[in-house]
Design a protein that fits this description.
The complex is a heterodimer of chains A (72) and B (173). Chain A has 72 residues and is α+β, with helices and mostly antiparallel strands. Classes of the chains: A alpha+beta (72), B mainly alpha (173).
Amino acid sequence: MTRYRIDPAPVALRTDSIRRAVLRIRLEEKSQAGPMFHFTAHVTDTYVATEISKFDRAEIPDLSATAPESLH
Amino acid sequence: MFSGAVPSPQREYRFNFLRRAMIAYSEHGLARQGTLPYLEFEEQWFGKYFLAIHHWEQFLAAAWHALETLRYAAVVGRLYEPGDSSIAQRLHGLYNQTKHTESRITSGQMPPQASLAVWLCNSGLRSNESELTFAETGEIVARLGDWAHVAEDSLTGPERGPQGVAGAVRATG
């Protein structure tokens, strides 16, 4: 299956170079993965989701031990 | 589900509270299940991120509507005081920001260059106006569970319930 990759961006993309960076998509043959895009932190934070490049951990309470029947 | 006869409209209010509380519980779990694999995956697979965001949005909606239903049932009073920065107020803020994303885009109320009204950060859910930590989302679900016990008992009024969701959530906010 084909997936798409952007070359590792030359550090510190300026806004006016983002379009060129996005256009630098090259095809990469992979056997299992679906379409995937690799962007720089600047591009992802701007065009995908705010702070997504800094989102790397989450301590989310696991409530699966809570008796769900109390909510039924 | 209910112990004893519950007259209308309390029957409908309490039923809908229980239904929404159950969905909030379920969506919190789905959001967790969607978020952690995104973080564990080596590549930034944005599809996983947006699936996680979807479940967090569903959680915000279900949790807020569950609290609102308690208020309609007069099981609790005001959910928060304006400007009190309680968990309830911040939950309402985040829910509203996801609900009104398009109008916020139109009116220029989105963060600069941002495309999502609510996003994920290491501490929890964030918008340009509100934030809930992951610990607080868990607290909301726990309090909804407490109130579910109250809602199931037709004889239990607010005076016999646990500290109100508004109160408990306000106290920890």
